Amino acid sequence: MPLRLLKYALSKDYPGTRFFKAHETPKKSYDVVIIGGGGHGLAAAYYLAKEHGITNVAVLEKGYIGGGNTGRNTTIVRSNYLTPEGVKFYDASVKIYEGLSEELDLNLFYSTRGHFTLAHTESAMRTMRWRAEVNKHVGVESYVVGPEEISKACPQLDMSCSGQAPILGALYHAPGSVARHDGVAWGYARGADRLGVEIFQNTEVLGIDVQGGKVAGVKTSKGYIATTKVLSAVAGFTPRICEMVGLDTPIVIHPLQACVTEPMKPWLDTILVSGSLHVYVSQSSRGELVMGSSLDPYEVHSTRSTLDFVEGLTSHMLDMFPFLSNIKVVRQWAGMADMTPDFAPIMGKTPIEGFYLDAGWGTWGFKATPISGKTMAETIARDHAPDLIHSFRLSRFEDYELTGEKGAASVGH
Amino acid sequence: MSARLARQKGEWVNRASTIKFSFEGKEFSGFEGDSITSALWASGEQVLGRSFKYHRPRGILSLANHDINVMVTDGMDTNIRGDVVPVAAGMALAAVNTDGGVKKDRSRLIDSISPLLPVGFYYKAFHTPKKMFPFWENIIRKAAGLGVVNFNYPRILKRKLHAHCDVLVIGGGATGLSAAYEAGKSGLRVVLVDENAQLGGSLGFDWGGSQESANLLQELLAKLESLPNVSLIAGAYAAGYYPDHLIPVVTREGITKVRAGSVIMASGAFEQPPVFRNNDIPGVMLGSAAQRLLHRYSVKPFSNGVVFTANDYGYRVAQDLLEAGIKLAAVVDLRSDAKDGPLAAQLARRGVKTIAGSCIYEVQANADKTGVKSVTVTEYDEKTNEALTRDKVTLECDGVAMCAGWAPAANLLYQAGTAMRYDYGVHQFVPNRLPAGIFAAGRVNGVYELAQKVQDGARAAAQALLHIGLDVPELPSVQPSTRAQSHAYPIVPHPKGKNFVDFDEDIQVKDFINAAKEGFDNIELMKRFTTVGMGPSQGKHSNMNAIRILARVRGVPVEQIGTTTSRPFFHPTPIGHLGGRGFHPHRLTPLHDVNHKLGAVFTDVGAWKRAAYYKVAGLGVADTVLAEVEAVRTKAGIIDSSSFGKIEVHGPDAALFLERFFTGNYIPQAVGSSRYTMLLDESGVVVDDGLAHCLAEDLFYLSSGTSNAAAVYREMQRWQQIWQLDIGLVNVTGAYAAINVAGPLARQVLSGLVNISLDDSALPAQSIRETEIAGVPVRLIRVAFVSDSTYELHIPTPQAAFVWERVMGAGQALGLKPFGTDAQRLLRLEMGHAMPGIDTDGLTNPYEISAEHAISLDKPDFIGKRSLQIIAKRPVKKTLVAFELDAGYAGEMPFECNLVIRQGEIEGRVTSIAYSRTIGRVIGFAYVAPEHSALGSRFQIRADSGALVNATVVSSQFLAMQK
């Protein structure tokens, strides 16, 4: 056993200390207020403190930290996107993730398992090749593989998918990984807290005070906070926060659902995605199959579960793995995905001075947590977005310069 | 050693039918009606499983599927719940997740190093140095999981049914049966479901030393028998609540999706274990589990036990144990005021002493840790919740029945959005504000006494009937029990721990305290950090104690802690049940059988099965396709295009609708003519193209490709909702079949079949005529998609095969050959037609594919116009060009979506590429930078291997170029 666990066995008093302090009442003002205590908001706070020396920061969380999409996603990290801008951005995130457990001194179980996006049609094969070629060009390890290689990596997979959707090939992405989603939020929270950032849970933002086109403060359930810089990192609540400053975004909210089985001895070593069958699946380190599917096809601001989601998903799981008939689904849940027209995020400055936006994370936010935190911290600190996120600026919608990532969404949304 | 009692009334086992099975290699026998667990317990087996984390020996906890102590495999199936799955003849069972068998599990050593595994230990170590993580991860992954998946397990197609009822009652105990009877008297359709093999709930096992429960059960069942409109379904659990009272009911056979007019939750309560050291040793079980063993299966839970209670219910359990001839060493009651009560006096008369104000401080296991040797009892200070260890009493015993209280089985109530409150009388959460149409009664509502439960069920039934519109008198509400049924804090601290809260996950009291110390002092964070309630029983036996501990740690009332979110499923539900038969809907063209007979090999195009090519004996696929192409180029070909989208726009505003929907001009459009249509989205992106055929001034017939047809029709409906024009939209895709006859001899093939002239002057390109073939009305369209000379026949679906045969007959002598979609793609490429979806992507605007000719910016408006006006002022960033590879190129063949590379940077990509025998070259379309789009420009394609292949921009008139 690792020696660092010895102290828990040997100490009389439990040696653990709070990951983050239990602040109750905010100060009258902060240099930066971050709305949203999910992975993104906490990461931004951490990098603001660590890389820019800005520690007079408050993170406001309506519920509990990591309780939104950070704690609801299926934890897949990958960078096999379609546009060079997207691939570079997510690749930078993967690079940070690889060293993040050590940096935060918290084991995030960042586990590189390889990621197969299965293609069941010729047109899917075309998109796989497109992504592979762009990935390779940018230096990301992705390539098109044939059925034999897929079978070798996952011998349990029915390559004909019960005769319904024979697998023609796949996009293989070697760096594809999974991680403990909660840990990412907690690690960043602890890191930020230790550097002086104050995290407020159960603290709701009620309004944003804008004067003369500039942010002046935030009205919260715990009183008014004066500040000139506000970051909104609230995923499904983005339209509500943006409304507070009179900002229009093209974001629409669709629920995204997932479910998990009982634990079983690990057998699925890779991460599998099938666009045609609308399935993505990996096996957690607890032994559960963690499964997700397409977005709900309608806009609604809700995290309720639906039966047809789990019926459709499990039916397709059986096409891929017919032997799972009697394996049981323990739980299903949902998050709210803030979808953009081009399936790329919205990051950076806005027309309101001091109001920064980190949104449009749809179904792809978890994998970008470190790099979004880092780049948004830089944007806030310098009031200037780094080149890496230029393609994700809000003004691209007015400029007709979209960053088309629809083809790289894991399943047909 | 058999623990089976003499036959008794109401028992579930059929003693006439003996069942032989094995467990861990040893032969056993039980009776029909036994669960796996009861059969083993009857045979004296107590170690039935090993725990998830520490691999501690486990026996019975709830015997109700509220825990997973007994999880077995039969070699075929895994993670079988021994407590509730009937034992079957020939079963060869073994516990899951052991290393070397349940008795000698080598992983039991983990229990002794548990101090090294503090709460969340996996977050705290193994990640540094980084390179060691895969090593540790491998070990941890191997230790994870429960059963081993059998990769040869067959796919089971479970049926799904839909059912509707006026009142759905969930739970078949006293409350539920009473509710079903009261609701059923109305004559409406009432369905009652209960997860147990037999109805009755606690009436069937909680006797308390009297016949009252059993008699009431008989009485209720007899009354219900007279109501044919009431269906009572045992062995069926309500798996979740979904909006509008949709409740999937799961049985062994499958899922029935019940849509109810109103729902009565009479789901009862889960008994909660008190928490003390070694409360998981086999032989220590919940009081209700002991009663289930006694009365359902006629099995002794132990022979000399201790009842550890904190409520009056424990005395009922004690009475039942005594009635069964079991010795009781003592009743230990946490409550100090229990000593002088009538219940204690009753027991005293039977020679059992009550030790009040005391707790079981710890359980001592026997030598091989397979059962209970004795318990240590100390005083318990209810104010400080401390065990006062100065005076310890040791009681020899072989089992403990635990009765500390309950937690409402409110899972579905929470899912439906019920607001709960904590009731300090009964000491549990009870519904405070119920959603419309949902009613709660009985224990889940905090009502415990038998008579009150019956009343509460009737009260809920009356409310349910009122809700669905019946005029029935409202019944008085029944208040929660005033006597505490649950102890406010049945938690006994112990310096050595192993006082378990969550048996699925091996979580002890200190884990919660330590998690809170680390800042996880919010119930949701605590759940995630400790994993309490995350195991397969989803907190049924652990969430309430977790909440109580956290409230104590934080020094706040329980209701301020709140509960974690309840989600489906109530019990883990098999994938095969949920997936059901797994439908894969697809569409067949009316000519599918005809194609099949001709040797078609089908491909999926959207939802459609289309002929990709027609097999020719002795010819490879590529050559077959080239031969089909050759037939079209030199003679004539025929293709089934029935999957094309076909939409009719009727009405005075038909042309206006097209004018707004598409980019081109349709006011006016001559009757009998066809025009190109291009559809954009609001941001100016090319979505689809097709043709608009004018059949009359107020009737347009639109045809478009296969893939987008459904989406385009939806989009038309959406816009019509907004525009409210005087039109009607009819999707006639399925009403008409379509056949294309193409090639230099096409006109000759058809001319004998129709009575109109097919001359270029009479039927020029882009025109439509309504005519007949052998009496069948046909819309005949002159198109030019795969060849200059193409005739498209749109035929009413029922006559499609007839017309196809006629055309085939007419073409036989002329060399007419069927061709499929593979040939079609190459033919259209040779014709220089770019296709939306293949040669465009989700961001392509018309200027990038040189489609200015299709756009009328001078129209008042059309979808995407505003965007196009902005885009038009910006420089074009990429241009779709036609290209060819060098003559005689024989190197690596590039694929579609290989990139165009210039000076090491991405310039564009190939969208279409194929070898054309007609032209004698590899031709295609690709995106390049506008400055490199002039005819004759050279560019390079990077093939899969990285090799760069030279290409030249050419005119898209590939065929003309060849001439």
Report what the structure shows.
The complex is a heterodimer of chains A (413) and B (963). Chain A has a domain at 114-176 and 262-335: D-Amino Acid Oxidase, Chain A, domain 2 (2-Layer Sandwich), CATH 3.30.9. Helix content of chain A is 28%, strand content 24%. Chain A has helices at 6-10, 39-52, 84-104, 122-138, 147-153, 181-194, 238-244, 307-320, 369-382, 396-399; strands at residues 32-35, 57-60, 76-77, 111-112, 115-119, 142-145, 169-173, 177-178, 198-200, 205-211, 214-220, 223-226, 230-232, 252-261, 271-274, 279-283, 289-295, 328-339, 346-349, 355-359. In chain A, α3 packs across α9 (369-382). The mean pLDDT of chain A is 95. In chain B, 23% of the residues lie in helices and 29% in strands. Chain B folds into 6 domains: 1-148, 2Fe-2S iron-sulphur cluster binding domain, sarcosine oxidase, alpha subunit, N-terminal domain (Ubiquitin-like (UB roll), Roll); 160-270 and 407-467, FAD/NAD(P)-binding domain, CATH 3.50.50; 273-404, FAD/NAD(P)-binding domain (3-Layer(bba) Sandwich); 499-570, Arc Repressor Mutant, subunit A (Orthogonal Bundle), CATH 1.10.10.1100; 645-828, Gyrase A, domain 2, CATH 3.30.1360; 833-962, Elongation Factor Tu (Ef-tu), domain 3. Chain B is α+β, with helices and mostly antiparallel strands. In chain B, α7 packs parallel to α8. In chain B, the strands form 12 sheets. In chain B, strands 8, 9, 10, 11, 12, 13 and 26 form a 7-stranded mixed sheet that branches. In chain B, strands 40-41-42-39-33-43 form a 6-stranded mixed sheet, with helices on both faces. The chains are: A alpha+beta (413), B alpha+beta (963). Chains A and B meet through α1, α3, α4, α6 and α8 of A and α3, α4, α12, α13 and β29 of B. β18 (328-339) of chain A pairs antiparallel with β29 (573-574) of chain B, so a sheet runs across the interface.
